[in-house]
Amino acid sequence: MFSERLEIAAARVAGHLRDVLADYPDQPVVDAMRYAVQGGKRLRAFLVMEGAALHGVAPEQAVQAAAAVEALHAYSLVHDDLPCMDDDDLRRGLPTVHVKWDQATAVLVGDALQTLAFDLLADARTHPDPAVRIALVSSLARASGAAGMVLGQAQDIAAETAGRPLTLKEITALQANKTGALIRWSAEAGAVLGQADTGPLRAYASALGLAFQIADDILDVEGDAEKAGKRLQKDAEAGKATFVSLLGLEAAKVRAQNLAAEAEAALSPYGAAAESLREAARFVISREN
Amino acid sequence: MFSERLEIAAARVAGHLRDVLADYPDQPVVDAMRYAVQGGKRLRAFLVMEGAALHGVAPEQAVQAAAAVEALHAYSLVHDDLPCMDDDDLRRGLPTVHVKWDQATAVLVGDALQTLAFDLLADARTHPDPAVRIALVSSLARASGAAGMVLGQAQDIAAETAGRPLTLKEITALQANKTGALIRWSAEAGAVLGQADTGPLRAYASALGLAFQIADDILDVEGDAEKAGKRLQKDAEAGKATFVSLLGLEAAKVRAQNLAAEAEAALSPYGAAAESLREAARFVISREN
């Protein structure tokens, strides 16, 4: 059920991004944007679509917010892959944008994908009430800017030159910014669109986001690079502190399992309707990519 | 009168950006953001403040939109200065962000400044009516993304490897995207905030934006690098087509003067109240930086 619904959400948001970008000028930079938004797990899109469904929001509205967060996520990956950042040449099993095009194009593609995210949210198709759209714009800006995702990325880079590994507390705070903020936004967006209480989905996403990152660190150690579609064991090579290096592999697995259980428990107000979100929590800690 | 009002707008927007960024986490990436938004002519901020004043919009609201467009402009400069783009080490008379910090920080600073622009517009201090804020978010996204400023930058980069210089028509279209779109947004923002007809300010800004770019090309040939605070004669060195190379220096000057006059004429509905905007049009074609 979960994997099916994930696939449906992924196909829907991919189609929507394709449609939206079809209206853009036929230029190499737009081709590279189309390339950059392809593929990926689409977990953030799924969270938006499921959260929206729980609140009776029309999929035509939800897909706008889902496409926005996937565009924003794609921008962060394109910039993160740059030689001056993580220097990755493979992403989602394909050459990264700066490898397939060049660095200048990769900078501009990331810039334009961020803009696209806010453009999508501001569009009337997202919600008829401008106040709801503004709430989404504002919260996405907070989640992704210098007090959210970008702060986490900067903290991550700073950690490499800090001369000492991060503590568990520091790495938890870093990840809450770097990946957690966007996952929280995704899970909450449906409640915002439904003008409902965001509390339960926020609690769910906070636990889910941390479980996701711990699982990522486990995958970096135990994973299969081919299945993951990206280079692995980079953190160990770089001598970076991770949840695995700090907690040990077995304790990290237990912690991820506890967080997944915590995420599931947070959904109790929704009863059986939230079953696929519960499955998502179990998926996040067992995925191979 | 104009230079005084430009100075007041510049000081006001600089103070506002300082206040806004004071609330951000004390991190190197935020220090670099504070650095990147310093200085500059603040022409875009001035256009917002003056356009707002013409429509009776409170300066406390206008300064939010002015700060937003200056943050967005600063992001584009930080990314444009990167080694993979224009590779500039001097901007506004100071070392560029990637020189003073590093390239990764410059990428993140640009990313976060773009986010800040949308965050500022979405804030209730910009306008009590969310519909007005959404209109500003939406129009800024259109002006700056892959159908606006970023498209212009990509066209500019593509021109370098095109094997032939651009035609006058192509360079006019390129500049309308690269610098024109943001200048138009700035001039129109006051009318949007005042929920008034944007037509006259749009016509003014279209002529002003092109005059600005022609003047930039003239400055690149005739200017004093010290006064300009940046490296000059780059276009000639790179063999790039400019308004000067296409029209000749004297004809370019005449064209800029005609456009400035056209910009002034577009303001006739505002009468004497728009005098400082008229002076701005004259300033744009006579500036030394």
Automatic annotation (TrEMBL), chains A, B:
Cofactor list: Mg(2+)
Keyword Metal-binding: yes
PROSITE patterns xref list: POLYPRENYL_SYNTHASE_1, POLYPRENYL_SYNTHASE_2
Pathway(s) of this molecule: Isoprenoid biosynthesis; geranylgeranyl diphosphate biosynthesis; geranylgeranyl diphosphate from farnesyl diphosphate and isopentenyl diphosphate: step 1/1
One Pfam family recorded for the sequence: polyprenyl_synt
Enzyme Commission code: 2.5.1.29
Alphabetized InterPro entries for the sequence: Isoprenoid_synthase_dom_sf, Polyprenyl_synt, Polyprenyl_synt_CS, Prenyl_diphosphate_synthase
EC main group: transferase
Catalytic reactions of this protein: isopentenyl diphosphate + (2E,6E)-farnesyl diphosphate = (2E,6E,10E)-geranylgeranyl diphosphate + diphosphate
Gene Ontology molecular function, alphabetical: geranylgeranyl diphosphate synthase activity; metal ion binding
Keywords associated with the record: Carotenoid biosynthesis, Chlorophyll biosynthesis, Isoprene biosynthesis, Magnesium, Metal-binding, Photosynthesis, Transferase
SUPFAM superfamilies, A to Z: Terpenoid synthases
Superkingdom, taxonomy of origin: Bacteria
Cited Gene3D superfamilies: Farnesyl Diphosphate Synthase
The keyword Translocase appears for this protein: no
Family: Belongs to the FPP/GGPP synthase family.
PANTHER family per UniProt: FARNESYL DIPHOSPHATE SYNTHASE
Function: Catalyzes the condensation of farnesyl diphosphate (FPP) and isopentenyl diphosphate (IPP) to yield geranylgeranyl diphosphate (GGPP) needed for biosynthesis of carotenoids and diterpenes.
Name the record gives this protein: Geranylgeranyl diphosphate synthase
Naturally occurring in which organism (per UniProt): Actibacterium naphthalenivorans
